[in-house]
Amino acid sequence: MSFPLPKARAATIPGHACYWSVLDGTHAEGLGGAARQRALKFALEPDLPLPVDEVEACFLTETDGTITACACRRELLEGLSHTADIAVPDAIPDWLKTKHHASEFDLLRGEVTSGRTRSARLLRSVSALIVCLCLSVL
Fold first, then answer.
1. What three-state secondary structure class fits 110?
2. pTM here?
3. Is residue 88 scored above 80 in pLDDT?
4. pLDDT interval class at 21 (50, 70, 90)
5. Could you give the 3-state DSSP secondary structure of residue 13?
6. 125: number of Cβ within 10 Å
């Protein structure tokens, strides 16, 4: 679930710093949330030149059921997370046939996120807790 941030700061990642792949959709069949993300990351690992634990990835489903994956080194994203709320590749490779635009592959919405995003999530959680406490008192 994403939520709007005031004047979100965006960063672009050079195309040569991203790893792209097309995965068979059966890797994530019947899975959702974190389990789906984990299954797709391990399905992506054979296409990566480094261990899957060293990358963050974004997965978007195509109309034919395949999944387009974009991954980037975690250390690069951690550096960008200090100055950006969104990090997207500057372009999609020509060989990759996808209906998605490069701006849809936000790599700062996984485990690596910006400080503003973490603060907004914490504020939302604390607000929900306060509302629940107030309702329980009634």
1. coil
2. 0.72
3. yes
4. very high
5. strand
6. 10
